[in-house]
Design brief:
The structure holds three protein chains of three kinds.
Chain A: E1 8-12, H1 21-34, E2 39-43, H2 65-74, E3 80-83, H3 84-89, E4 102-104, H4 106-115, E5 118-121
Parallel strand pairs in A: 1-2, 1-5, 2-3, 3-4
Chain B: E1 2-6, H1 15-22, E2 28-31, E3 55-59, H2 60-65, E4 75-78, H3 80-89, E5 92-96
Parallel strand pairs in B: 1-2, 1-5, 2-3, 3-4
Chain C: E1 2-7, H1 16-29, E2 33-39, H2 60-71, E3 75-78, H3 79-85, H4 90-95, E4 107-110, H5 113-121, E5 124-128
Parallel strand pairs in C: 1-2, 1-5, 2-3, 3-4
Classes of the chains: A alpha/beta, B alpha/beta, C alpha/beta.
Chain lengths: ~120, ~100, ~130
């Protein structure tokens, strides 16, 4: 019989709005939290771009992702891990991000992945 | 231990480089679909820093489809049954695309 | 082992669905169980009953349907992803007053809860991305 709780990790690697990946990932994250399973979100590569503040998606007829990201804290999803190298490569300072995040280096990322039961990639 | 599944060429996306940054000792890599191109000898340098404990595989069906021969010997060629067996052997599968 | 499979690419546009199909056939052949196949994002197009490839090409949606019937598989298409992409079952077509519906009868429309449940109950979840 399987365990009743599995730890989930969602890996985000895509920028928002250019594809549905960011929104698809967030919808899954919110659903996982409804099921009360331990959940972590990892932002790698272009995924860190989702975390830039002050989106105005109405300008292209889409819904704002940043509003949903802020909702994560309301849903008790507070394990937001961000690749520090991805931020550096894009010239983004951790202080630019208004969410509660934990920076990880390569080793930290490998360890995070190792610790999870299920990993979903977007 | 994790099986990392990569389905893109090294140029198509950062899938391969992201996965290589995320591997731990004892993990494995499996190249499928367009990912098999990374087993061309020209890309061998990409894999030299992998820990020796990381096993590398590629899906032979995808390599055959693409007419690939004389590939990097570090990659063991397996079929779909082998893919399933790897999925069982490693405790989870992480997809990189 | 109990497997669940997630597909996020449309058939023909990417190999995701075809690879997942071959993988699934091996899973079953080797005596493992498939708890669910979940079609998300562009993956929903594998559930279209209207897909009509040329005679000399694979019909991936039809192959999924056949595999489902043969092995009583639970093929779930994410309802939100499907409806916005124009893949509807009879209920949704009626709800939104559309002229037709196209979900193949061997698939079900359901929510992301089915994906999460699959993750909880399966030993292995394998994602075939676009």
């Amino acid at each position: 019989m399987s365990d009743s709780k599995k730890s989930f990790l969602i890996i985000n690697r895509k920028a928002p709005y250019g594809s549905s990946a960011a929104r698809d990932a967030l919808d899954v994250a919110l659903t996982i939290s409804v099921f009360e399973q331990p959940l972590s979100l990892l932002f790698l590569d272009d995924g860190v771009l989702q975390l830039l503040p002050e989106h105005n998606a109405a300008a292209i007829g889409q819904k704002n992702l940043s509003a949903n990201l802020a909702m994560l804290e309301m849903y008790d999803i507070d394990q937001l891990y961000v690749c520090s190298r991805a931020l550096e490569q894009r010239g983004i300072r951790p202080s630019d991000i208004k969410l509660n995040i934990t920076l990880l280096d390569q080793n930290g990322i490998a360890t995070l992945i190792k610790q999870q039961d299920q990993v979903l990639s977007f | 231990m994790t099986l990392h599944l990569i389905n893109k060429t090294p140029s198509e996306s950062s899938a391969l480089s992201d996965s290589l940054s995320a591997v731990s000792e004892g993990d494995a890599l499996l190249l499928i679909e367009n990912g098999v191109y990374a087993a061309l000898p020209g890309y061998a340098a990409l894999f030299t820093r992998l820990p020796g404990s990381v096993q590398c595989y590629l899906l032979e069906n995808d390599a055959q489809a693409r007419g690939l021969k004389d590939l990097n010997q570090e990659f063991r060629q397996i079929d779909y049954d082998g893919f399933v067996e790897l999925s069982c052997r490693y405790s989870k599968v992480v997809s990189w695309f | 082992m109990i497997f669940s499979i997630v597909i996020t690419g449309a058939p023909y546009s990417s190999q995701a669905s075809a690879s997942a199909l071959q993988f699934s056939k091996s899973v079953l052949k080797l005596g493992h169980r498939i708890h669910r196949v979940f079609f998300y994002a562009d993956g929903v197009h594998s559930g279209s009953a209207l897909a009509t490839p040329p005679q000399d090409e694979r019909n991936i949606p039809a192959e999924w349907a056949e595999l489902a019937r043969e092995h009583e598989l639970d093929l779930v298409v994410c309802i939100a992803a499907a409806v916005r992409r124009g893949v509807l079952d009879e209920n949704e077509a009626r709800r939104y007053e559309k002229n037709g519906h196209n979900l193949s009868p061997d698939f079900n429309l359901s929510g992301l809860g089915q994906l999460v449940e699959a993750g909880i109950l399966s030993d292995r979840v394998v994602t075939f991305g676009a």
